[in-house]
Amino acid sequence: xxxxxxxxxxxxxxxxxxxxxxxxxxxxxxxxxxxxxxxxxxxxxxxxxxxxxxxxxxxxxxxxxxxxxxxxxxxxxxxxxxxxxxxxxxxxxxxxxxxxxxxxxxxxxxxxxxxxxxxxxxxxxxxxxxxxxxxxxxxxxxxxxxxxxxxxxxxxxxxxxxxxxxxxxxxxxxxxxxxxxxxxxxxxxxxxxxxxxxxxxxxxxxxxxxxxxxxxxxxxxxxxxxxxxxxxxxxxxxxxxxxxxxxxxxxxxxxxxxxxxxxxxxxxxxxxxxxxxxxxxxxxxxxxxxxxxxxxxxxxxxxxxxxxxxxxxxxxxxxxxxxxxxxxxxxxxxxxxxxxxxxxxxxxxxxxxxxxxxxxxxxxxxxxxxxxxxxxxxxxxxxxxxxxxxxxxxxxxxxxxxxxxxxxxxxxxxxxxxxxxxxxxxxxxxxxxxxxxxxxxxxxxxxxxxxxxxxxxxxxxxxxxxxxxxxxxxxxxxxxxxxxxxxxxxxxxxxxxxxxxxxxxxxxxxxxxxxxxxxxxxxxxx
Amino acid sequence: xxxxxxxxxxxxxxxxxxxxxxxxxxxxxxxxxxxxxxxxxxxxxxxxxxxxxxxxxxxxxxxxxxxxxxxxxxxxxxxxxxxxxxxxxxxxxxxxxxxxxxxxxxxxxxxxxxxxxxxxxxxxxxxxxxxxxxxxxxxxxxxxxxxxxxxxxxxxxxxxxxxxxxxxxxxxxxxxxxxxxxxxxxxxxxxxxxxxxxxxxxxxxxxxxxxxxxxxxxxxxxxxxxxxxxxxxxxxxxxxxxxxxxxxxxxxxxxxxxxxxxxxxxxxxxxxxxxxxxxxxxxxxxxxxxxxxxxxxxxxxxxxxxxxxxxxxxxxxxxxxxxxxxxxxxxxxxxxxxxxxxxxxxxxxxxxxxxx
Lengths: 526, 356
Description:
The complex is a heterodimer of chains A (526) and B (356). By secondary structure, chain A is α/β, with parallel strands linked by helices. Helices cover 34% and strands 24% of the residues of chain A. Helix content of chain B is 77%, strand content 2%. In chain B, strand 2 and strand 3 (201-202) form a beta hairpin. The relative contact order of chain B is 0.16. The chains are: A alpha/beta (526), B mainly alpha (356).
């Protein structure tokens, strides 16, 4: 399969707004982008598709100037070479503007202040004429047919309105930058703007995108949603594992052809582990679980079962573990664990722990452990009472205990006195998993347990989870790593728009099938 | 695909893995040696822990060169140790909420309120002294509950809430006191704080010493103390590990106010009288000592022995400068400068990360 197919045959210049040639990026030994070449035409909406780890976000970050590409790459805007690495501060003046998923708006400021943030923040002006600024904002919104009040506080706008505002702002910045060279209207990069928007909002957003390209600007639309890409783009480039797979004319490519290119055909040696379902009987049953963005969902987990949850970003699966732990207010639903009923609307983490339910959040140093405290303290936190002797708790007891646990879990270096932040991601995670496994949980809830964890540590974590499941615990694991799910889970539930849309077991449980079901899950609901 | 080839590959990999593992375990061993042995590391660690104590001794010797008669007289130290007991207690009160991540700016006001309440109840209303003390401590605990209510229920920052409640209490004190000094508090209290001496030091000092020991034990050797630290450093981590964060923070604020009220008891006993405003001047010394103390003994944490040493480090300096004939404004210079320098040092220890 050709790695750099696509645009080689296109006219030398003339029609191209942005050309990228031979772009590679390595992180240590791992290659994130491998000799990618693509071009975006004038007045075109160009889709950029790929699953997690495909390299699309690395590509965007190179364009935004966050990452320096490997030598040998070339980037041209309207035929003029752009210096590499791209100077992040000048990127807008060059004719590239970005709208990231988090939009970059300041919620406590007004719409006008956000819209002209760049000018207000850097301009030298001792008398700001607010009336004129609001009028200017109103005129801009009028041009785009948007009903936005320039004086409103951004935090009070709906998610859709905020996204529209961010796009208008990026477009206006481009227009401002290209005032003296109108033949180069610029390229607008929209990085996954839609996952959290309702369908009607996406429609509005697309209208705005079309208005932008009508003026000659080009748009790069980054997404994992095949249907949206098919609806809005003229051409689309698909990345997988850092390789450019194909650039296609959208109109001539059907849904399945896209999915096939995104997932690829099994190049990896992993077949599904096809673990036989444990037959120890049910352990946990959840009914009517609902919270903002999730549910209602019913699921059950058997004793000794590792149940995986996955879906595309925004599908709500990643909230389920923390909801079952009682970590958020406003959760509805019932859960029973080994026959005991728990009301999820009143459950607190304290109650959950008393029922031997434990939860390992994905945010390792923000929610799971404290980086400035020692590994020993972090590990011993749930069981301080058990470690105390007649004279009270001592560092020595804590460290001896943590050293034993760390040795079993393979934490390296196994020095409990070190602060947690001194360990690598994988070793910190081993220690934090050991923190919960020592409590012999009946239900272990995990959110992305191997994110940022190296391959060796990953295997050790999987082994520890297998062992725990074998001893009769139920494990719920939310992850977007399909390979990991296929290897470790007995069963995987796939979420879309807060609902379970598919259940995979046995031979179906392969990386490819999971990916395919995730990407196919959209049209079944739309 | 042939079967032999991958097997050979795997064997080669296993060998490499084994070699790497061996290397890693060797490295681990050196790290372990480094953290437990390692002369330089150990020396650096020691210097960090006891730097303040050494600085204290050096300061005494330096000042002693100029005023040997007064600086090397046990009497000077005995009275200095006794008269700073309430600052020690106030500092200990402060470090409890500081550990859980809350500032309590109302402690000095609570100390003044407690002092004034005892005087009014005992002198004006004829309460027995024990009863007056109990009422003062209870009122202190109530102030802590009020602080906790506004901080936790409304989610207002502790700095704002306690700044407000502190000022409010200052008003209460003036009201209760009728704007005057009240003297003639029961001799029983004066005896129990300052007139009784052990090794020449007023007994009030020993109360502070015992309290230092208690707070040290709670912070260092109980699970509750360790949890306080988790609540301060990572609220979300503590909450998701099953710690009732609101209960812990409330407890810390109530403990702080009650101990501040106890500092007021010592202050009243020391003078046999109460005035409406002088206690407020102790807020800054307590903060300075709390932060300076967090650079010593257990560097990087607010800790009781560190706070204890810091209080007497600062007051020794002031005593010495007074002996040298420097005016009383030196007190402000010393405490104010001490606070800023202490926080700067602790920032250096933390690697200049912004404070939480």
